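Quick log. Single chain, no ligands specified.
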Amino acid sequence: MIKGIGRLEPKEIKIIEEKVEKLFKVFLSGEKDKGIKQLAKLLSTQNYFVRELIGKKLAEYPNQDFMDALVLELTPHKLYGVRAAVLFYYWAKYENNPSILIMFLDSFWDNTPWEVEAIIADMWRRYPEITKDCMLRWLESPDQKQRALAFHGMENVAGEDPMYILDCVAKTIDDDSLDVQKKITHILTQLARIRPAECYPFMREWLTQSNETRQKTIWVSMKKLVNIINQRNSRDKIDEFVILTQQTINDWKNDENEFVAGMGTKLAMIMDQQYPVDFD
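-> predicted structure:
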């Protein structure tokens, strides 16, 4: 029996591959409708890895013209697992053609969001430049879910191009979507740990304006960072991230701007507690 969730064991992979091979024989015999029903049954699962495996196996079908037509027909299928396998099929088939992958991401982002997240993360690692352009477009989307997806995996370029991330955050810092704000707090936390010298001046500048949304976003991000420091052993508290975070909070306490000073004072109180805090 295949597990409902989690990574597949070798014996489970073998079982699924054998079922896909039987499915191929059904298609090759000309029984298309029967094959679609069997495929849907295989993909009636919550297991992400089953959907990934089957989708990529479909890309190995000997008659790719037939499979291309079939997959196109299945794109709007009512079953999430079938739609997910379709996307994995395209991922496997065009993994070395980022322009085509971007085209599919543009089409599938609201169709199979979990799988789209996985492919976006892979795109950031393998094709960062073309992904940067795509995500800038997504940040302009009228749909809050697409704007939030634009930040997924962006931490992969934090070390090499922190200004790109900071520009993206600047475009969306006042976004009224909770999903977008959660993504921003995550990416700011990741960026500050890697490139604090670049990150903190931007965060201070955003704080200087009396805007409840951005103040809450930065507050949550900074509390997470303080929590990380408070959890570290003393021997780990000499790196750039720790030193600059402590210095930033001290500077903020004495800042001429009341909003910056207020947050600096509250953060200093948490830092002095020296134990993890809960997040609002």
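The radius of gyration is 23 Å.
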